[in-house]
Amino acid sequence: AEFSGCIDTGSFILNAVLSGSLYGGVPNNKITAFAGESATGKTFFVLGVVKQFLEDNPTGGVIYYDTEAAVTKDMMSKRGVDVKRVVIAEPDTIEKFRTHAMKILDSYEKQPKESRPPMMMVLDSLGLLSTNKEVEDVSEGKDVRDMTKSQVIKGAFRVLTLKLAQVGVPMLVTNHVYELVGSYVPTKEMGGGSGLKYAASTIAYLGKKKEKDSDGDVIGNIIKITMHKSRFTKEHSRVEVLLTYDKGLDRYYGLLDLAEKYGIFKKVSTRYELPDGKTSFGKQINSDPEKYYTPEVMEQLEAAAAKEFKYGMTND
Length: 316
Hints:
By secondary structure, the chain is of the alpha/beta class.
């Protein structure tokens, strides 16, 4: 099954780094992984994409595998997610997750194609799932590490990747990363072995810093995103997105850097000169983006995004 389109993430710059277009997003029939250290907002990040998916697909539904027992419907609805169309499941092992997901995908496939409602799956997070063997060992009082875990993950994703592509269902997976000890340069590695690494068509690493408003109150997090693996855009591309506590992903945040880099807005000391010759502070642009990002500017930004992020496009 070939790549057939994208799901809007709710952020233009995130769409661009994932797909090469401001109007793209996560591939709609593949696995996309968001990996980060703990407290990088991975859950809220995927909830932002879930919210956008449900808004764009009024008949769509989401199966949310919450392995941390951390997500409640109340928390989802506070973030603007239509919880009536979300099913939360709490598997405790990789095998249970795989079996449940395959059952749902099988019955989804049996529906006539034209009457299937759009569907998305989320696994949040892979890192906390154990294996059936681990659970058995613990209940028998054995204190051993399950050496087959990486194989189990690989096997689960092998069957799921194929099935998701066949039926056109995207899956978002969150995972933790850790610093590789003893490596020559500081290297971050994703947990769970190589299974997800091969299965995901896209892997984005998240890191964060706090965003404060003018009174110094923290209103959200600026999430730094680095493409670790991508089939559609240049690897190691970096962008910053703003994840606010009340609105989720900010639609326009991050475009200013792109506009400056490609000379669409020119930096003049502390201000930006706009195409019409007027100048504005970055803060003004970010707080009233629709005024500044006119259709003409967006057209130039779309061309800039292709140059900046797409494979085979050079900046000459």
